[in-house]
Amino acid sequence: MNEEKPSGVNPSGINPPDVNWNESGLAAAVCQDAGTGQVLMLAWVNEESLRLTLEKRTVHFWSRSRQELWHKGETSGNFLRLVSASLDCDGDALLFSVRPDGPVCHTGRMSCFFNELEVSGGAPGGSPPSGSAPAGEFTFDHNLLESVYRLILSRRDAGETGGSYVARLFERGEGRILEKVEEEAGELARAIREESREEIVAETADLWFHSLVALATKDVPPGEVFAELARRFGRGGRPESR
Questions:
Q1: Highest mean pLDDT: which range of 5-14, 58-67, 71-80, 231-240
Q2: What is the phi/psi pair of residue 96, to 5°?
Q3: C-beta atoms surrounding 174 within 10 Å
Q4: Using an 8 Å Cβ cutoff, are 103 and 223 in contact?
């Protein structure tokens, strides 16, 4: 099991008896990425799973469906490494600040919260709330690559012939998409050799974007790439083929 050794130190000062458990002996626990601030998932803890979480510094839950302890990542390898834990003002909900080893959601996405709901109305006077997107538009969360990927999928699945740039790419087929990835990789290499910092940034954005379009041709979410990078972290990558 790829689990950090217990430090023997409770990072939060919280003790399981401090929690106001519900009638089932449970409390909701929200997990938030310590690096990005992205909300990753919500699950339930009981006294034992909270104790294990605080002692072992990897998140443990209580599975209500299986009625058993659930060490997050034990099967997938995508552990949640605890940074800190806090109780809300009523003592009946917890916030775990974590560093994920890979995608948190079983779908391969970094966060379980990826199904956007349409928000109607707005601020008094009919104007949208400050910082919100126009109706029908996507907003992006703390994990920008995941948000861009969702937008690409929406454009792909809409099948707007002659519509958005992404829809036109998919209309022209996988071959054209792969040509764009190769083209943008060459442009980035040229920019690094010859161009300004601003051009390097712009060309990198172009390559990342078209790489996400290419991933969408195979329905590979960026979370799977994050997981592979996390697996390699500190261990080196694959050996070069030449």
A1: 58-67
A2: -105, 120
A3: 12
A4: yes
